[in-house]
Amino acid sequence: MTEDREADATEAPRTLLIIGGAEDKVGRVTILRRFVRLAGGRAANIVIIPTASSVPDEVVSVYSTVFSRLGVQDIGAVNPPSRSASSDPDLVARLDQATGVFLSGGNQLRLSQLVVGTPMGEALLRAYRRGAVIAGTSAGASIMSQFMISMGEEGVTPRQRSSQLTVGLGLLTGVIVDQHFDQRARYGRLMSLVAGSPSLLGMGIDEDTAAEIRDETELTVVGSGAVFVVDARSAITDAHEAKRDAPLLVSGAVVHSLPFGATFDLTTATLTHFVEKNADISVSFSRDRHDTAAAAAALRH
Amino acid sequence: MTEDREADATEAPRTLLIIGGAEDKVGRVTILRRFVRLAGGRAANIVIIPTASSVPDEVVSVYSTVFSRLGVQDIGAVNPPSRSASSDPDLVARLDQATGVFLSGGNQLRLSQLVVGTPMGEALLRAYRRGAVIAGTSAGASIMSQFMISMGEEGVTPRQRSSQLTVGLGLLTGVIVDQHFDQRARYGRLMSLVAGSPSLLGMGIDEDTAAEIRDETELTVVGSGAVFVVDARSAITDAHEAKRDAPLLVSGAVVHSLPFGATFDLTTATLTHFVEKNADISVSFSRDRHDTAAAAAALRH
């Protein structure tokens, strides 16, 4: 244990950039710019994985263009057409050189089928542990967790068996990651899964928003929406006995809506820091300060 | 104070039946049947208030038919066409005789405009306090609270100024009531209001679902969906300074999804009782009991 801890202490921080889908690609490009910076900026060696998508060539073309505009020169892609192809040593070697990996959107079950548990999946874990940043958007976000959400309806009331768990890449343990969270009203489906597995936190990420996670613990929010976290470890539920489609009892879950400017500790499930980035009262605050200063000056005379 | 308490103790229990809209009117009629029962069954004297609706005559016709089928003989309606008409002594006298009042759906701001603070509004408070059941669906649900929600977008991420408060009837203090909660994904708009007013509980009621509330304290869930309650009294928020439309910080709110079979204390904001009404494991449980009994019998030999 002591040796392991010492080894951990000397390792590079492990970084995930988990994106809720539909991140800006033509404006300020806040999130993809952050990815490039984490991957090493102009010196980055980026591998795009478009395997979840039904239009992989377009996906590679779009992200290559964006990363290239952001100054990256070394951009490649790997896209195994089958599970056996994920053992290809050339593909694994390409990932072993990456400083940043980007998993596209699409169908996350394609990634479970083709990548999880293969030499390619192991290469992704290796890259993550040696300090390469692993980013994923939409399906590429959900696949990162050990227990991955898939399927399910829209709505805010949690219902029995409205969604399901599948094995994901395992880069993030202890958290279920859902995406397009606000836009597709996925509160109910995420809540239904943590009701059944209360040892896991639920995390729902809005579009054009990312959870940047350091060492599986420190979460920082980037982008225009919010990251939702639910902690149902102390909740009372009937997920062990409710009938299919029945609304679930979930009483006492603790929830967090975290916008840009928030940092959160996933181990203790608490807000650690917040700096307001969306204030509109600076003017009235300034005026208040000015008036008070003027009154204080007048009183001194 | 002592006299007041003694007076309270001798009063009839005060009962609200707050319905999330679209309650069943042709099948098992669970919720409307409950209303009729609370109002006195066949002996009930029911007044329908269709004032929120743009089709008040149809509303009165539909509910009269349902209540009549459930055995009620004394069914009337009051529908003031203007605020001044809400002072009409005949209208007030009709409400003073009611054992049950039913407020229809529509636009709750019409009820704020025409009824709140008028002799008709006072008659509703009087009826409630003497033990008549007050039911309302959709707009008729929201109007019951002292601080009433109106307007707002769909979605689960709370955003600054995405909804607003108006003065309601004041039958229920300390709770904001939202409706069509699951179907219109109103989690975000309700959360944004309790973020700004954390002393209030937020309550979101699904369609075909009702919160039956006794003495402003004991909540029982009736119907096919769930009642959602959020308690943000211990949450950290930036609702005092976030910019319009910005996603809000709300960290540490406690949430409850309560299906049929749950009772909840609104004063302490805790689940008080739950009986599973939607189980599908009785068969496997029976088998488990049978197997265990058989093994025990075999071991005794």
UniProtKB/TrEMBL annotation, chains A, B:
Instruction: Sum up the protein's function in the record's words.
Output: Exopeptidase that catalyzes the hydrolytic cleavage of multi-L-arginyl-poly-L-aspartic acid (cyanophycin; a water-insoluble reserve polymer) into aspartate-arginine dipeptides.
GO molecular function, a single term: peptidyl-dipeptidase activity
> A Pfam family for this UniProt protein?
Peptidase_S51
Concerning CDD domains, the annotation shows: GAT1_cyanophycinase
Originating organism? Branchiibius hedensis
Keyword Transit peptide included in the entry's annotation: no
Task: List the catalytic residues.
Answer: 138, 180, 207
Q: What is this protein called?
A: Cyanophycinase
Q: Which SUPFAM superfamilies match?
A: Class I glutamine amidotransferase-like (SSF52317)
**Enzyme Commission code:** 3.4.15.6
What family classification does the UniProt entry report for this protein?
Belongs to the peptidase S51 family.
Q: What residue range is the signal peptide? A: none
Q: Which InterPro entries match?
A: Class_I_gatase-like, Peptidase_S51, Peptidase_S51_cyanophycinase
Q: Which reaction does it catalyse?
A: [L-4-(L-arginin-2-N-yl)aspartate](n) + H2O = [L-4-(L-arginin-2-N-yl)aspartate](n-1) + L-4-(L-arginin-2-N-yl)aspartate
A single GO BP term for this record reads:
proteolysis
**Sorted alphabetically, which keywords does the UniProt record give?**
Hydrolase, Protease, Serine protease
